Amino acid sequence: MIPIITLTTDFGTSDAYVAAMKGVMLGIHPEARLVDISHSIKPQNVLQASFVLSTAYQFFPPRTIHLVVVDPGVGTERRAVILRTPLADFVAPDNGVLSYIVREYPAREESPNSSETKLGPGLEAVAITRPEFWRPEVSPTFHGRDVFAPVAAHLSLGRAPADFGEKVTSLAVLPVSLPLRAPDGALSGIILHIDSFGNLITNIRGEMLPEKRRNVTVEIGDRPINGLSRTYAEGYGLLALVGSSGYVEVSLKEGNASALLGVKEGDRVKITPRTPVGE
Amino acid sequence: MIPIITLTTDFGTSDAYVAAMKGVMLGIHPEARLVDISHSIKPQNVLQASFVLSTAYQFFPPRTIHLVVVDPGVGTERRAVILRTPLADFVAPDNGVLSYIVREYPAREESPNSSETKLGPGLEAVAITRPEFWRPEVSPTFHGRDVFAPVAAHLSLGRAPADFGEKVTSLAVLPVSLPLRAPDGALSGIILHIDSFGNLITNIRGEMLPEKRRNVTVEIGDRPINGLSRTYAEGYGLLALVGSSGYVEVSLKEGNASALLGVKEGDRVKITPRTPVGE
Amino acid sequence: MIPIITLTTDFGTSDAYVAAMKGVMLGIHPEARLVDISHSIKPQNVLQASFVLSTAYQFFPPRTIHLVVVDPGVGTERRAVILRTPLADFVAPDNGVLSYIVREYPAREESPNSSETKLGPGLEAVAITRPEFWRPEVSPTFHGRDVFAPVAAHLSLGRAPADFGEKVTSLAVLPVSLPLRAPDGALSGIILHIDSFGNLITNIRGEMLPEKRRNVTVEIGDRPINGLSRTYAEGYGLLALVGSSGYVEVSLKEGNASALLGVKEGDRVKITPRTPVGE
Predict the structure, then answer these.
(1) pLDDT at position B154
(2) Does position A231 have pLDDT exceeding 60, yes or no?
(3) Per-residue buried b or exposed e for A155-180, using 16+ beta carbons within 10 Å of the residue's own CB
(4) Shortest distance, CA C143 to any CA of chain B (angstroms)
(5) What residues in C contact A14, CB-CB < 8 Å?
(6) Which residue of C has its CA nearest to A43?
(7) Rg (CA), chain A
(8) Which of A264, B152, B188, C244 could form an SS bridge with B67, CB 3.0 to 4.6 Å?
(9) What is the mean pLDDT of chain C?
(10) What's the pTM value of the predicted model, to 2 decimals?
(11) Of C192, C194, C217, C199, the residue nearest C257 (C-alpha)
(12) Residue A113: pLDDT above 60?
């Protein structure tokens, strides 16, 4: 089996920061396959990184290692961790950047006011504390290169997470905005992410919709869209559909919905059942 | 032989769409080499994708597989196809995204009004119809991940195109603007592509020029350029030359011709023979 | 050992220029590992390419081959060279794009007015002159694809630099702005590079600072910053620190220092010792 390490950062690709991490990893494990997920996470946007990663990681072979470096607190006392799930391993700062991953599994305990989640069954984590796997000199401003990359590379050689430090039982998890359902069945959510096509991806999952999907109205930026389409090519103008990651999204046929509507991430979206007129 | 799969899409690299396709392919064929051609095709610009691909594919080793996903009609009845040429294989929607490739070979039959071209000798194509090579669940909005990527990966394992579906004898080909030659020898063409340097790549090929290349005037945006240069470093200001893909292009020495001239793709260009003054 | 070839260019990633080079290299050496350093060097900015490369190359395994194609003089009489250092090999035009690399080693001889540096001990270079390693047809506008890429690939197969051409004893080196130290200990430098976070990386190296780093004031764009931080997460607002490549840089906590200050590359920076008030 050829081990795969993916990379998700807010480093961009103009500078050589990503390349330095890759050089370090290939020095430790020359056979590792390195695959970029995204380096265009907005600077310090931990939650965006978490979301983007969550839309891709399950399409990689089991036991792929996902290296995530969006790390505004680099060099401070924030922990560095390895998270092992039934499907994959994650190497990342413990700053919430794994929120969407951790939330896919039932927590042992979670308080809405706490920023920590006690890991439930199936999840294991360790704090990265043993410096023998790091680069000999660690810059306080670039743990991606000096700590996370070498740890991911050593992990890809088959070492156990426990070799890298002490077990931890909880991880930082940021509050993720979940849609609310009103008594009349209406769903209130937000725009979670705007992709490079300008598609508005909401936090409302397809499973939450009524079975007869044509019987809903999606409202975003005061523009009602009646019924859900199956593809981007149906009808005219704005359309709503369940996208490839399972979330309801709003799209403009052959255009950019974000530019048309002038909306932004965090803006409200509402899905209401329609009064069936006959049928 | 290590099989190579290239990727050309309009997905950008901010989101994880490209990574999801790569994850799927590495799950099926862990040894495949994945090489990005471009993910910055303008959204839905099938013809630009075709052109960009046509400038690179022949530099890859024989039998490289080129995966092209610019697919505004995803999920509709547009076909998905594999095209096999003497040099390479292409996996793509049948929406014209292979126009520049197909046009390199003589067609069996072509009507100027038809959007389909009957494939001539040397070209074989199949419609991708057998779902056993797809991901078990196919999103109607992301065949790149659920159909094209797994098909390309299985193809790279050595399967024959015929394993993936029925043979087809014609493919969608979009009208490609060809230059016209006037009775006086003048050539009228258009700007086909503006590259990231701001070079204006026209649809006039170097082979169409008179042998004495100094004896032409290139006019673009009302600015005449006398004679053709050999390199980007000659003379001052605007220059014209035959670029590395064989097309006449206009460039600004140490600058951006596109920004200077304010022209855009599709704008007219004219090349006229000059009255030789002595020589 | 799996040979690695890195790529640094000003080609961008929208067009297929980088992919064409990769295709050529994989045709010659299918096992070579290709790693992008940056393709977002500003067009023709030889010195930026040199700087960006210098911040990454030492993190790659020994004997990595670094292909650098920022080449405004392509097709002219400027030389193409291979530089072999104790750590790595470089394949590049001889136009100063290796300035930061060559300057890491003592020169045999250097005149401040000359644009050439006689290579000192430890460095070897050859001019790439033997066309049997190039592509059969060489475009005068794309040596990256037709000369540099095939030479790098053949070099990665184990050939000696001397196989590619005649030894040369000096290379083009551009003047690099070095900081000045005034009699009172104040350091005057410039902004060398602005990274994608908006961090302002100066040409003043951490080693030049007094040991008590808190006792300095960093002035950039008329905004004094007192004392040096250790991480990006300390204090409020603007901060100065020694970054991961060893240079003093100015950063805005959770923001973009470049946007806030409106400064640009080449702008002045000053670091002065502070009068210790007690301590």
Answers:
(1) 98
(2) yes
(3) bbeeeebeebbeebebbbbbeeeebe
(4) 9
(5) 38, 40, 52, 195-196
(6) C197
(7) 21
(8) B152
(9) 93
(10) 0.95
(11) C199
(12) no
Residue in chain B nearest C12 by alpha carbon: B196
Q: CA–CA separation, C81 vs C171, rounded Å? A: 9
Inform me whether the pLDDT recorded for A79 exceeds 50: yes
Beta-sheet strand order (sheet of C109-110): C109-110, C116-118, C170-172
Measured CA to CA, the distance from residue A204 to residue A181 in angstroms comes to 10
pLDDT at B235 > cutoff 80: no
pLDDT score of A275: 67
Cβ distance of B232 and C20 shorter than 8 Å: no
Our CA-based measurement puts residue A178 at a distance from the nearest CA of chain B, in whole angstroms, of 21
Q: Say if residue A88's pLDDT is above 90.
A: yes
CA neighbor of B88 nearest in space, from B19, B37, B25, B12: B37
Asked whether A8 and A70 are in contact (CB, 8 A), the reply is: yes
pLDDT of amino acid B67: 98
DSSP assignment of C129-162: --GGGS-SS--TT-HIIIIIHHHHHHHHTT--GG
H helix or E strand, kind and range, residue C78: none
H/E run at residue C52: helix C46-54
ipTM value, please give it.
0.95
The H or E element containing residue B273 is strand B268-273
Query: Are the C-beta atoms of residues A267 and A220 closer than 8 Å to each other?
Result: yes
What is the tens place of the pLDDT at every residue in B69-108? 999 999 888 999 999 999 999 999 999 999 999 999 988 7
